[in-house]
Write the structure tokens for this entry.
Amino acid sequence: MKRVFLTGASSGIGLATATLLAERGDEVWGTSRDIARLPPLPHLHPVRLDLGDLHSLGQSFAAALNDAGHFDVVINNAGSGHFGPGEFLTVDAVRQQFQTVVFAHIELCRLAFAAMRVHGSGRIINVTSLASRLPVPFMGAYNAAKAAMASFTMSLQLELEGSDIRIIDVQPGDICTEFNDVIAKTEMDDRYAARVEKTWRAVDRNMKAAPKPDLVARRIAKLIDAANPPPRVTVGDTLQSIIAPIIFRLLPQRVRIWGLKKYYGL
Ligand SMILES: NC(=O)c1ccc[n+]([C@@H]2O[C@H](COP(=O)([O-])OP(=O)(O)OC[C@H]3O[C@@H](n4cnc5c(N)ncnc54)[C@H](OP(=O)(O)O)[C@@H]3O)[C@@H](O)[C@H]2O)c1
């Protein structure tokens, strides 16, 4: 039985992970901004947490830690995105995107490390995105934020030699969740309208046809159980999560951009 702290347990990947782990008997402290959104499951302990407020995030984590005693696993999953042309992104919008999926995630890593140092071991799982390597058009702030978090995670992997704390980067491709329903659409003008609309249709179609979040939940459960987990995994359909990253690595930048534009119909 593991003690797990999991952000964003009310929906999508987090909900599937909370359900799978709780059903197999792990104790899960799962978060939402509104705990009424969390399902009443045995072994699932509701925690209110808002990524927008680092102070309250610290308080939420401390209260859960006090309740749990220690955490074997901390999963940085909660997040949301922005959609719109990078040309019009304000610094405030970018800051808000980084607050949600970089600053809050880094703060939770820091808190998790402190708790795991006391306990002597632990595993941190950061859910970033394949978009950190294969950017989605009109999601500049999100792509950049996920790339920052992937790079931060890899930096820690360089530094953690000799410790019994592991940090793992989980990079999903498209997964069918509520992510697009709550995406923040940013400002644009007529020069972009048609292409933004075309890309949105492709992005939404891909997500609706994508694997269900249980796929990611099962991979996360495996990472929790593995004696020697890989530092980074991709999860999704075969094209996005296996073929595209391998081919992408070998291509010159000009061809990568051409390929991504073709993929999104631009
Ligand atoms: N779906 C995909 O295709 C995909 C692909 C790659 C990576 N990801 C990443 O996977 C993670 C989970 O996304 P999902 O697809 O499962 O999306 P989702 O269904 O929209 O779930 C997002 C979760 O994050 C929580 N959340 C969102 N904003 C928050 C905030 N400001 N403060 C606290 N909690 C917040 C939500 O909780 P409440 O609203 O209840 O507070 C919800 O539980 C995200 O980090 C996302 O970037 C998703």
Observations:
- The longest strand covers residues 165-172.
- The beta strands are 3-6, 27-32, 44-48, 73-76, 82-83, 122-127, 165-172, 184-185, 232-235.
